[in-house]
Amino acid sequence: MSMNGSIIDTKNLDVFYGNKQALFNIDLEIEEKQVTSLIGPSGCGKSTFLRCINRMNDLIPICKITGKLNIDGQDVYDPSVNVVALRAQVGMVFQKPNPFPKSIRENVAYGLKINGLTSSKSELNDRVEWSLKAAGLWNEVESRLDDPGLGLSGGQQQRLCIARAIAVRPRVILMDEPCSALDPIATAIIEDLINEISQEFTIVIVTHSMAQAARVSNRTAFFHLGELIEVGVTKEIFTNPSNEKTQNYITGRIG
Amino acid sequence: MINLTKSAGLNLHKRNGAEILFQSVGMIAIIISLSFLAWLIITILMNGLGAAKHVEIKIPVDLSSQNVDPDNINDASFGSILKSGLRKKFVDVKIRKDKKKLYNLVSPEGSFELKREILKDPTVLGETTDIWFSASDDLSLFIRGRVDINVPEDQRQLSDKEVTWITQLKTEGRIRIKPNWNFFKNGDSREPEIAGILAALVGSILSLSVCFILSFPLGVAAATYLEQFAPKSRLSDVIEVNINNLAAVPSIVFGLLGLSIFLGYFDLPRSSPLVGGLVLSLMTLPTIIIASRASLRSVPPSIKEAALALGATPVQAVFHHVFPVALPGMLTGAIVGMARALGDTAPLLMIGMVAFIVDVPKSILEPATALPVQIFLWADSPERAFSEKTSAAIIVLLLFLILMNLAAVIMRRKFEKRL
Asked: What is the 8-class DSSP label of residue A148?
């Protein structure tokens, strides 16, 4: 794997929910235009870490974050940072497909509209088409762009959500267990899609499935009880982990 | 062999019995409540439909120029013309007491009806003409079979003499029954045969409009802020508890509040739909806020998160995605609140909307009454004919409630389809 240089790096990142500490002293670098998967047992803090990157944790009033989290050298928790601008650069795909209760076209166009990224109707339509094509959904929905997004199947809805996220062309796309609500066929399609779009976007994916992490990611980070145990090239982590806990987890002894 | 029947033990006999018992108790409860409802509706309909009929009586009146001056119609004494017409019809009535009874066959409104008739069509002047007049309430009840003649004479409204007169008029074809459109065209009156519901209906519509225009935007805005934006703190908890408490406050208390604030302090016009609407919106606001919050809360937070993750501001996320989904529920809540306001009497009594109002209000500043208050007033009247007016007004009120609920259902369907 080639080193592309890191786009996200954290220093001494601690996260607290009230009195409970969820993440301890995380130092992690995430490389640009690579797929990085975060694995670990339930409650290990991998989703919490993911949500720190686009500051979705701001929505939880008791959540407190200390330390540094830089994207492209800028600290996202600096008071001068506008969270709206941050989220336009860091897209997110959620665990359960959550298309807006609007048409397929409006779902994809929404981010473009609010962020004022297109100047004409035809440009908007081109961008919608590009996004749906990139998400591998275009052929299935071309003839019914104005039908409700909620009328699609679960896997199609999740690809619609990916199309919606990439439409605004963010630098980073965060995926929080994007396949956990999908069947194996839909999962395989999404995994292929992740490989496709990783040419253009940096992807951070949280997953429960070690097989998935092995299939889709270039690098893997293993979290346990709020600590980052080990991070490295995926193949290394799965074949020759340096830490005993990682070894135990990937062989099924813990987690 | 495995026993799969009831005799398998496992307490099956006892458990089956409990199943049957509980389900039949539920069915009986539903049947009892439905039969009470049916009873209510049937009695109100039976009683109220009488008010849909208007009885008229034809009297020959002498409109020669010595009675009515064609150049000065307004100066004529219409009452005495009508009375002499009645006397001519029944020449053998001599005693003063009997004459009075005779005059009472026609509604006291008769003299005004005569005047209106002449003004409408002056060609009737100059000779003796037959004109239809509204019959009195007693005659009307008798014609429609609501007076039992088998009851001893001194215990009923009509004496035997009156009954003979009426029978004579009837055989001469001088009595007819018409649909009572006046019920929807007139305001209140002391005479049940003239009294109508229009003034109360307009009063109710005006008050409810004021109520809706004030309480819906205020309630929805308050609910949206509290549910979506307000930081959770002790203050917001206190506000929430108090809104719930306000929803349970008896409506007459809101009437008192309105009396002291809107009438006492702001000096707004007494008895007006403006003040009525203000008081009703005080009463409806908590209901709308609670319903709107529940509706907002039922929108999956994942939709809002998706919008925020795309770079929408919190206000954009709420108004582009959460609000449209919650709107049908909010509207339903508002209409339910409005339906309660439509049927509420107590707060309107406190602010003087209980007055006897004959004229149909033309603006929200004129004195008015409301449907439930009108029902209350009529139910309080001693004349027997008012009891069927009361039922008729209840039917109108129920129809409006059904219409409002129907509107709520249709709106919800329509909005849900659009998504």
From this structure: B
- Average pLDDT, whole number, for chain B? 89
Nearest to B86 by CA among B97, B99, B73, B95: B99
Per-residue model confidence as pLDDT tens digits over B307-347: 999 999 999 999 999 998 998 889 889 998 999 999 998 99
Contact A101 B321 (CB under 8 A): yes
pLDDT at B417 over 80: no
Pick from A81, A92, A100 the residue to mutate for testing the B interface (most B CBs within 10 Å).
A100
Measuring CA to CA, how many Å separate A232 from each of A3, A72, B380?
12, 20, 88
| Cα dihedral B8, B13, B14, B20 sign | positive
Interface of B with A in 225-284 (CB under 8 A): 231-232
Name residue A228's beta-bridge partners: A223
**Amino acid, single-letter form, for residue B376:** F
Q: List all residues 6 or more positions away from B62 whose beta carbon is below 8 Å from its beta carbon.
A: B81, B84, B85, B88, B128
| Secondary structure class of A64 (helix, strand, coil) | strand
Q: Which chain A residue shows the shortest CA-CA distance from B231?
A: A61
Which is it for the CA torsion B254, B257, B263, B266, positive or negative? negative
Are B286 and B244 in contact by the 8 Å Cβ rule? The answer is: yes
Nearest to B309 among A85, A87, A102 (CB): A87
Among A92, A98, A111, the residue with its CB nearest the CB of B303 is: A98
Q: What ranges do the domains of chain B cover?
A: 2-49, 52-180, 198-415
ipTM: 0.91
Decide if A100 and B321 are in contact by the 8 Å CB cutoff: yes
**Looking at CA atoms only, how far is residue B246 from chain A in angstroms?**
29
Q: Which residues of A touch B305 (CB under 8 A)?
A: 56, 59, 92, 94, 98
Give Cα B407 distance to the centre of its chain.
18
Q: Residue type for A123, please? A: E
Contacts of B6 (CB under 8 A, 6+ apart): B12, B13, B16
> B302 contacts in A (CB within 8 Å)?
94, 96, 98
Q: Which residue blocks in A90-153 are alpha helix, DSSP H?
A: 104-114, 121-134, 138-141
Rg (CA), chain B: 30
Q: What are phi and psi of B236, to 5 degrees?
A: -70, -30
Q: Measure CB to CB from residue B306 to each of A98, A114, A148 and give the nearest one.
A: A98
Whole-angstrom distance, CA of residue A217 vs CA of residue A203: 9
Given its phi and psi angles, is residue A225 left (phi above 0), alpha (psi -120 to 50 degrees) or beta?
A: left
Nearest-Cα distance to chain B for A84, in Å, is 5
CA B316 to chain A, closest CA, distance in angstroms equals 8
Q: How far apart are CA B385 and CA B48, in angstroms?
A: 10
Q: Quick one: pLDDT at residue A2?
A: 44
CATH of domain B198-415: 1.10.3720.10
Q: Give whole-number Cα distances, A26 to A11, A39, B148, in Å.
A: 6, 14, 95
Interface of A with B in 129-158 (CB under 8 A): 148, 150
B367/chain A closest Cα distance in angstroms: 47
Q: Residues B54-65: pLDDT tens digits?
A: 899 998 888 888
Q: Which helix (H) or strand (E) holds B312?
A: none
Is the CB of A226 inside 8 Å of chain B's CB atoms?
A: no
Is A91 within 8 Å of B303 when comparing Cβ atoms? no
Residues of B in contact with A96 (CB under 8 A): 302
